[in-house]
Amino acid sequence: MKNHFVQSISPGDTIDDEFALVEKTMLQKRDGNQYLNIILADRTGQIKGVVWDNVRTIAGAVEAGDFVHVTGSVSEYRGTPQLVVRTMTAVAPDKVQAEDFLPATDLDVDQLHERLVKLTETFTTPWLRHLFEAFWQDQAFVTAFKKAPAAKLMHHAYLGGLLVHCLSMAVLADKIAVHYNGLDRDLLIAGAILHDIGKLREFDYSAAIDYSDEGRLLSHIVIGLEMVDEKLRQIVDVPRDQANQLKHMIVSHHGEPAFGALEPPKTIEALVLHYIDDLDSKINAVRDFMAKEDPSQNWTSYHRILGRHFYRGNQKDILPKADG
Amino acid sequence: MKNHFVQSISPGDTIDDEFALVEKTMLQKRDGNQYLNIILADRTGQIKGVVWDNVRTIAGAVEAGDFVHVTGSVSEYRGTPQLVVRTMTAVAPDKVQAEDFLPATDLDVDQLHERLVKLTETFTTPWLRHLFEAFWQDQAFVTAFKKAPAAKLMHHAYLGGLLVHCLSMAVLADKIAVHYNGLDRDLLIAGAILHDIGKLREFDYSAAIDYSDEGRLLSHIVIGLEMVDEKLRQIVDVPRDQANQLKHMIVSHHGEPAFGALEPPKTIEALVLHYIDDLDSKINAVRDFMAKEDPSQNWTSYHRILGRHFYRGNQKDILPKADG
Amino acid sequence: MKNHFVQSISPGDTIDDEFALVEKTMLQKRDGNQYLNIILADRTGQIKGVVWDNVRTIAGAVEAGDFVHVTGSVSEYRGTPQLVVRTMTAVAPDKVQAEDFLPATDLDVDQLHERLVKLTETFTTPWLRHLFEAFWQDQAFVTAFKKAPAAKLMHHAYLGGLLVHCLSMAVLADKIAVHYNGLDRDLLIAGAILHDIGKLREFDYSAAIDYSDEGRLLSHIVIGLEMVDEKLRQIVDVPRDQANQLKHMIVSHHGEPAFGALEPPKTIEALVLHYIDDLDSKINAVRDFMAKEDPSQNWTSYHRILGRHFYRGNQKDILPKADG
Amino acid sequence: MKNHFVQSISPGDTIDDEFALVEKTMLQKRDGNQYLNIILADRTGQIKGVVWDNVRTIAGAVEAGDFVHVTGSVSEYRGTPQLVVRTMTAVAPDKVQAEDFLPATDLDVDQLHERLVKLTETFTTPWLRHLFEAFWQDQAFVTAFKKAPAAKLMHHAYLGGLLVHCLSMAVLADKIAVHYNGLDRDLLIAGAILHDIGKLREFDYSAAIDYSDEGRLLSHIVIGLEMVDEKLRQIVDVPRDQANQLKHMIVSHHGEPAFGALEPPKTIEALVLHYIDDLDSKINAVRDFMAKEDPSQNWTSYHRILGRHFYRGNQKDILPKADG
Amino acid sequence: MKNHFVQSISPGDTIDDEFALVEKTMLQKRDGNQYLNIILADRTGQIKGVVWDNVRTIAGAVEAGDFVHVTGSVSEYRGTPQLVVRTMTAVAPDKVQAEDFLPATDLDVDQLHERLVKLTETFTTPWLRHLFEAFWQDQAFVTAFKKAPAAKLMHHAYLGGLLVHCLSMAVLADKIAVHYNGLDRDLLIAGAILHDIGKLREFDYSAAIDYSDEGRLLSHIVIGLEMVDEKLRQIVDVPRDQANQLKHMIVSHHGEPAFGALEPPKTIEALVLHYIDDLDSKINAVRDFMAKEDPSQNWTSYHRILGRHFYRGNQKDILPKADG
Amino acid sequence: MKNHFVQSISPGDTIDDEFALVEKTMLQKRDGNQYLNIILADRTGQIKGVVWDNVRTIAGAVEAGDFVHVTGSVSEYRGTPQLVVRTMTAVAPDKVQAEDFLPATDLDVDQLHERLVKLTETFTTPWLRHLFEAFWQDQAFVTAFKKAPAAKLMHHAYLGGLLVHCLSMAVLADKIAVHYNGLDRDLLIAGAILHDIGKLREFDYSAAIDYSDEGRLLSHIVIGLEMVDEKLRQIVDVPRDQANQLKHMIVSHHGEPAFGALEPPKTIEALVLHYIDDLDSKINAVRDFMAKEDPSQNWTSYHRILGRHFYRGNQKDILPKADG
Predict the structure, then answer these.
(1) What are the chain D neighbours of F30 within 8 Å (beta carbons)?
(2) What does DSSP say about strands E67-77 and E34-42: parallel, antiparallel, or unpaired?
(3) Buried-most residue among A115, B194, E55, F221 (CB within 10 A)?
(4) pLDDT by residue (tens digit) across E284-315?
């Protein structure tokens, strides 16, 4: 069990605790001896560490991505705390509390998923019903879908975040399909659920949220298209034109090429999807950011990516609980 | 009454009809005599014309912005039809059918406006209720608000378009205020109704939709702030901080400085407003564009401003009627 | 057989000739009667036409994309020649000379293709050899690959252009794999051949070069990935990591997101591929452009997309024949 | 009186001195006890501090924006000095030397202001004379105008800086109105004086220069327009068109939308104003920057915002004293 | 002598007049016979022409850049007038009125130049005095300097325009050198006179204003540096550091790399020069544009490059006569 | 001889070693006494230092740019090591091992240069042969050319780097001149060798690689043009048009104005040169970056300028040795 979280570690502390091992780099001292630089993490942050003794034994027993049990002490190096490791051994994933290492939604992901299933059962378009039946019957997919984050940093950057994001968008899509006439409701909701589905493999989120090799080389857009294609091959009588429209929503949901859209949205449904994705992502990015800041202040600190301070104003109670 | 609309005028036609006089420029021939170049319009387009005879009399009797009765014939100049004017006299605005000259919404603007009034009567924030009472009791304002277009070209570019746009956004805002917790519903709906209010004076739409002098010099954002300020001065006990948040929604609704936002959205409500403005404007711009194109084709022609062809797909029936 | 090419058609000409029918739009006159606007093309350009009589019969007998035999006469409308059609009937594709309608490379595409096959037979990487065997054994693929253009307008915009471009790049890749140490030659050449392979379906080039529905919705990058994936499923023992590197070359070959790269090049081979693609495309775009201009002038006219005049200088003889 | 300035505080120092309290944030330790993070400032910089004891009493007695008397000692935290506060009490503003906390111009602001008044008395345009009479008779305005800075960081970032900037621009405007024929001198000078007037409220500069709530939500452009509007309402016979031209100068003085101009300059006077604002701001930004650097070096260090090193060359004597 | 100016030529006219021959392109008809496409110009514009008969004789007797005497008649081709040439012969430059072909300043260029000479005689920096003595004693240089335009289209686009621009800037520079302390007056004025000096060779302005080969390949910045270098080689004791500062003003006067500055301005003088160049160019571009428009209208037409309409307002009298 | 390299200096170390003195700034303490801030460097990095005693003597004996012998001890200031200097004296350049202070290529620069000379001897264009004879006979030029780096940070940022880069490009140019028909081989190779020649003076690389005054004011493009011009003046019968094409390659090799091209490439040779410069620079920048990173990791750390992580993949052996 975790005693010390990274956020509260200070120089002088003695450490006897579990962490996720994020990085491990073997280096050589000027005298020819090897040492090991490491990065450890839990859900509150990351800390650097160094192993001076028993280097080969320790290095041989753990891999980046493992959970590890570490003993040692905390010194200071170039102004930040550094963990001087005495022992480090791998810990089986089922021996740790996953939620100590990765932040997760407070919501019941089974319930959230059930709401999505219900929504897809209302579809009147046969091939889209069959497509989602194929997804929901794929247990490995469903398990991953309930766990995946929607981002590494910006919004819904926690376990279950992708599901929270997709459900919120699907509910919004349902409302907007009523608001504007002429929209294909089933297609729009299907796009809302599947537009980011490639994030199941774009990220690695076993011990910490980071990009996978595949994610960095191909992006969640390409991976998502592959995942949809794989399921489409299991269904008969898929209208090719409509399938292309669904894929187009994945291809175009970032809106502009400069932001990663291979094509700009060219159908009404793709346009709507882009805007509600932008809306839901940004609202949640800002609410997550506000939630970390001192609630007694009118203004947040400066948000580097969005380039501004945010004004809390009357927002007294902006818990990122389930919307809609 | 109109017989010939501009769209259908061809070289060789004889003209005896009403138009809006858009521009009038006095020029001089090489022999020293003056002639008049004019631009005439109706709701189907614009045509150039020239007056060779009785120039001073005709020029003295009409002004740009007038409705005029014109007789003459159509020749061709540098590849396009040109109207050679024999007579041109002013026509009183109440003698023409306004809808022949400016496109207008098919919807009942009184009903649309009534829906907005009802919505503001549900507000629980006193100063916002008083603010809208002040607006709704201002008959000149209400008359203009029912008539103003939302744009010259891009979206809702017809009489009543601003009201259609604001109502659609207000209804959307109401839905989204329920979808996300922590939003100030009254403030968000107020912003949806007032964010473009400066367009009442940014545009001149008596005989044709064009920018007013004030509109070109100050923009609808500055004009809208002045209009809100004027009403706020009539109300007591306006909380200064909340009034600034309302003004901030007008200041920031274009999202980024490069698109005309003096400040980026810094409150949750201003963020939401920006996205639903973008959503409603673009959806309607695309639907208006599709409505003008051959419905039997899968693809529209190239949309120069949005930079793409649009795919009609299943959109068989996308009349821009009242949404929501 | 073609007598009149579009480029040389003038008002007053009588027409009795074959064209590609590019567009067909049914419209209605003010008197309620229908007429047909059409666009006809051959390899020298496009001309607009109109059908006033027998509209339904003619419209029912031809489709956009057909070759048609047309009789009629040429008038002038708004400053450009317009074909007034008397009769128009479909012509079977095997009855026309394809090269009258679409520009094509002068080179022997079978020979070019044979050179590519030979190059892939030198590969020492088993799965890449198998991948290309799968492509080369797919007759439909090979036929299309020998015919596809590389672009609609910019470079290699003629039948066989894609093959010319890929061969030139593959030969360059081979030279550069020797120039820089540490490059994976097989992977680089494979990327050179396959990076644009999606253009086989992105374009429609039966009667004229234009984008296909699929091409506009998904882009050649996504289509190309699907084509590679389909072949990879037929091969055993594909190393997943290397396959992702090959796909990454397709994903990243445009270099930057703003130019359509979902990810920027992240391997040395992807970097090299991007630069030689840019080099070969631009060199050929400029040479194709120069070839259309008066060879006695030092400067070309202004190239709108590249934004400059080009200086011919010593380039007396820049026929775009096979390079390398 | 100040003994220690922030710039010279080092770990190990004992502090018994006055500061401006910039920020105050109450936080909670893991043991449940509260502590206080603070930021203190004087004209030489800012330093972080922490209060561990008597937290509630101290926190209740001071507010951000107060001048405070602090005793304590200096330690080091994560590589930078940190003040561990023992006592902190508010000090009345009239008990401190304002110039210890905020940098101020060396010039006599009464004299500078008198020069501006004289300049506006030469106006021959009645409504502009009346407008400035209204401003000069508003004592609260004049007091603030003599004190306001022109920026937080970039140029004229000191008390009185706005007045120095406006006077320099007004004098330049006067010269340029003579240089180019056809300029409206009174309008141009009026714009030079009023273009940044909203900075009186955009900034808060009682104890330190920072943005006000209103400034962040509305920007100095909107605030300036409100201030001019308020004065215009007190004058009779203001020609609406000319007033709009004056407001247009405020609206457009940043030149381009991306830099905060709601409209680009559309009159000759607005164009000139934009260029002399850019000239005066940048010249002073560079001179202020040079003045802080070692005068014996040919090159300044790298200026992050302007993106370059500056070359001192012959500039031996570039004191930012009154120009013109 | 000119009878017909291009601006007033209409289909049906008979032509017997002088023009500048701008372009000459030999083409081939389908029957194998050659014909000649030409472009003719005078100061009011350009007109296309064609030669069907005596093609070789005529083509052999004239070159692009010649003045020519043309007889023929005016027809219409694709909606614009086209001159069908019967005869065309070269005319010696001294037989035409240069001002019929190229617009020129109304001012006395000798007087303008004399003012510049006087200004440089006030310099107290020896090497700068010697530099200008070298320029002023170079008769070919002075002759060209009095004739060169400052641009092809945008501002001061007429003979003598460069001199008008440089004098205006030099006078402004003199005023600003007094306004801001610490400026090197001689260096600043020298930069004002020489910053665009490469335009003497960047443009060809014998019969019409166009870019020279050298101008298109090297730009006026590189040519100007060569011209200054050539004169510097004739002077002894040039302080290398100061000469580099002068060259830096030429290198950086466009302000930003994207606008053609190889380096951004890094000295105070280079900064000032950039701003007064921008100011003088834009003011004159707008005044030249206004001068061509109907003076009775409040707004100009849309200026494509500057992206806006301009408001005339009180500008009743904006003749581009000598400023300062 | 060096004992301690900067990279391995830690707080507590005693120093008695040689460094390059990069910067020296005299400052004043609050008590009126002076002290000296310095920056020392060797090929492994930079370290800050301070001199408290004998300040005037020490400051008078050394200059920035000198090699110095330093004794003292290492403390820590604001989280980074700082050298407290006891003594510092100048060391003659011939007494130090240059390679301790500046990284240098491992290759034999005489051999590399010889390959370039051989290549230019194959030229068939007389004036280009003469041009290179003039360069190769200039001993000072050849010495500098063998020593200059190609950049301060990005690629080939070591002594000899410019020569390595130019040779690689010249060899590539030779191959590409064969690959595409119609290229002027001599001109292309000449451009490859000379395009960056101004870097000989743009950088100062006696004790550390930094920009020279001239480099910052004029850029390597302008300096390179001056160097070519100087040699061209020594040759008779240089065809002006071809010389301008060579200069154009220097002017345009950065491709776009925003990246420092005064004109975009307008000849085929200039286009090719731009692409192979981009190719060779980027490949080497990435390989140099990879070479500094842990070879056991699949991904490099984040490259700030290129904005991505790089994937090592199969690149096991990417020593930046001579290519081609």
Answers:
(1) 8
(2) unpaired
(3) F221
(4) 999 988 887 777 778 888 888 899 999 987 55
